[in-house]
Design goal:
Number of strands: 3
Helix content: 55-70%
Shape: globular
Distance between the termini: 78 Å
Largest sheet: 3 strands, antiparallel
């Protein structure tokens, strides 16, 4: 019989069964491959590694931008990214008076960017006051944005504890320029103190004279659309 006869499967049941079995195995393999790909894509371990890499890149960028940044300053940056700056707001009047007093005391030495991120996803930002005032920013509007940011922020101690633990992993692997013993010494009492608000280190404060307010990104975009486009 001609090898290309359309009746080959009728004339050769065994050949038909072999082709059918091969086709089923191929479909099964494809299905299993798709399932495995989905499992790997959604693997918590894979996503945890991605988040760790994002955190490392974020912190190294900040450390390189701000020489003299210590472990305490890293803590403060990430703390603001989770908890915001609600501790500075007792009421709008006192917050405005404190802000205006700080602006009046500022010198113009550090060359600050307008915005700096407090989180790898840039959903929380520092608005540096020197460029803010240079661009004609309104202290009253800033206080209103602070209050709105505080209202929209839900502090998450568990999130911060996991984040700070990730910093420890990076330090222990030599991925950040800090000593493991220093990290442990700094961190040992933080959980029992419920991860308190801390000041910048003395070295950082002397070198950079930090003056900023912390805002949620979505709030900043609404209150300062023109400033938000500036660097």
């Amino acid at each position: 019989m001609n090898a290309f006869s359309p009746n080959i499967f009728h004339d050769s049941p065994r050949g038909f069964r072999q082709v059918l079995a091969k086709s089923r195995r191929t479909r099964l393999f494809s299905f299993m491959f798709l399932i495995l790909a989905q499992i790997l894509f959604h693997s918590p371990m894979l996503h945890a590694q991605d988040r760790l890499s994002e955190l490392e890149a974020f912190l190294l960028e900040n450390i390189h931008r701000r020489p003299g940044m210590g472990i305490q300053d890293v803590y403060k940056l990430l703390h603001q990214g989770v908890f915001g700056v609600g501790h500075l707001i007792e009421d709008s009047a006192s917050a405005l008076a404190y802000l205006e007093s700080e602006i009046a005391r500022m010198d113009g030495t550090p060359d600050d960017p307008l915005w700096e991120s407090c989180r790898p996803d840039a959903s929380v930002l520092r608005l540096n006051l020197r460029p803010f005032t240079q661009h004609g920013g309104s202290p009253t509007a800033l206080v209103a944005a602070m209050i709105e940011s505080a209202r929209c922020t839900v502090p998450d101690t568990a999130e911060f504890a996991a984040l700070w633990s990730s910093v420890g992993v990076l330090v222990s692997r030599g991925r950040l320029p800090f000593d493991t013993a220093d990290y442990r010494s700094f961190s040992h009492s933080l959980p029992e103190r419920s991860y308190p608000v801390l000041h910048h280190s003395a070295l950082y404060s002397e070198r950079w004279k930090p003056a900023y307010r912390v805002l949620r990104r979505d709030v900043a975009e609404r209150f300062f659309p023109s400033l938000f486009l500036r660097k």
